[in-house]
Design goal:
0% of the residues lie in helices and 51% in strands. The chain has no helices and 17 strands.
């Protein structure tokens, strides 16, 4: 911390090579690497990107709701949960390639993947995550797959509305998650990333 705030530093692993990049006067709350950049969030709900230099540290957008960044992402963009409308804790699916112009809403409320996205995981050249869905009068939480486009974001797996997948991870060329459809306690499930 510097002046009571979590500031931005980079390091080459040595004391001499550990340098403050910039002074934001705002607490950094999360950070992740994507699209050859570092994206980070602040306590004031701003999304930044940096290339490790002061001039290359830019605020991309101010949000009213902004989730902590986490998971793994597409090689050329970050997917994250945020909102620019003050709707309490509700947030939608956004994307960014590290530019202000392309930090935009990907899927809005009431669409597959558009409500409360979380637990992002990169697998088989796509991103998988958990989100609420609303289709044909049904509403619940399901496993969503995205290629980074609105048309390529859809529900892969949707359990009964009273259940929901969680704990996504990748191992051995497979996608794993937990689900409790058949029992009162979560069970391990495995997927090759397709509905088949």
């Amino acid at each position: 911390k510097v002046g009571g705030k979590r500031d931005l530093f980079y390091t080459d692993g040595t004391a001499a090579g550990t340098v403050r990049v910039t002074t934001l006067q705002d607490d950094i709350t999360s950070a992740i690497g994507a699209a050859n950049l570092i994206f980070f969030t602040t306590a004031s709900k701003k999304l930044y990107k940096t290339d490790g230099s002061a001039n290359g540290t830019i605020m991309l957008k101010q949000f009213t709701v902004l989730n902590r960044l986490g998971g793994t992402h597409l090689p050329n963009k970050l997917l994250f949960g945020a909102s620019t409308t003050d709707t309490g804790n509700q947030y939608q699916l956004w994307e960014s390639d590290g530019t202000v112009a392309n930090t935009v809403l990907l899927r809005g409320p009431g669409t597959d993947g558009g409500d409360y996205p979380k637990e992002f995981c990169f697998f088989a050249n796509k991103v998988y995550f958990i989100a609420h869905y609303a289709t044909g009068g049904l509403y619940g939480r399901g496993l969503i797959v995205s290629d980074g486009t609105a048309a390529g974001t859809s529900r892969l797996f949707s359990p009964p509305a009273t259940r929901s997948p969680s704990d996504i991870t990748v191992a051995g060329g497979k996608l794993y998650f937990s689900e409790n459809i058949r029992s009162a306690t979560p069970e391990p499930w495995v997927s090759d990333g397709t509905t088949a």
